[in-house]
Every structure is written in C-alpha cells, then in structure tokens.
Amino acid sequence: MAAVAARYDQLKELDVVVLSMSTDSHFVHKIWQEEELTKMLDGGVPFPMLSDAGGKVGTLYGVYDEGAGVDIRGRFIIDPDFVIRAMEVLTPEVGRNPDELIRQVQAFRHVVATGEVTPSGWEPGETTLTPGPDLVGKVWKVWKP
Q: Of 33, 81, 91, 128, most Cβ neighbours within 10 A?
C-alpha cells in the first residue's frame, strides 16, 4: 500500500482511481495511517482505505481467506466500463510491484487508443503488434523477447 502511495501522483496522471481494502476496521486503518504510513510517506496514504468486514467484497473477487478471516493481497485493474482487465493475487508474504501496475495501465491505455497489442514486457515507446491474419506465424519478424 505504501509503495502504491509513493507512486500515487504517477497513477493520478494516468487517470487511475486507487482504492485499498482490507478486512480491518476503519479504526485499524486510522492507526495504520497515523502510526505506520505517515512515517513511511509524508502525509500517509492519499487514497481511501476501505473496510471489508466479513470479507464480502474479497469473496466476490476471490481473495478472501475464510479460514484466516482476511483478504489476501490482490490487485485489480478495472476499466471505465467496470471490466476487470488484470488481476494479481499473492499470498501475504510477497509484495506487489507498483512498477508493473503502472506498466500494465499504460499498456491497456495504449491498446484501447490504438487497437494494437503489446507483447510480453512491453514498455511505452517499444514495438507493438497489429493483430490480424498477416501477423499469424510471423510475430518473430517484428518482435523478439
């Protein structure tokens, strides 16, 4: 959460709305913000920290661990039409990578704007692919890993 907050300005520039959610109460979120997050980041986390008491939202998104009573780490990119375009779910001991989140948002924006597709590991400005029959069996001519 703090790593995403540190990149929040860049995400806002991409018109990304960031929400965080856990099964913790808003009281716990307040303590996290005051005692932990403001020490990591000037001002703490600038986006809403939502409570999923009982794991209803986590259950819908497949991240609620009923045995532990917590939402495990999940990240979802949801487009303006409320379609999940990407999701990443990790067990608690491994953190997510905000650079990859930003790269994926940039790739989805590029795809929507151009109709092109982005190959594995694509970064803005790199080669893209134009889907169609002419590309079948010939990707190697335009892109190499």
A: 128
CATH code of the domain made up of 2-96: 3.40.30.10
d(CA 88, CA 37): 23
By C-alpha distance, which of 132, 133, 77 is closest to 107? 77
Domains of the chain, by residue range, sit at: 2-96
CA-CA-CA-CA torsion for 19, 69, 30, 94, nearest 10 degrees?
Answer: -60
* Threshold 0.85, pTM exceeds: yes
Burial class (CB in 10 A: 0-12, 13-18, 19+), 45: buried
CA distance 51 to 21: 6
Which residues, including other chains, have CB under 8 Å from residue 69's CB and lie 6 or more apart? Answer: 23, 55
Q: Tell me what pLDDT residue 113 has.
A: 95
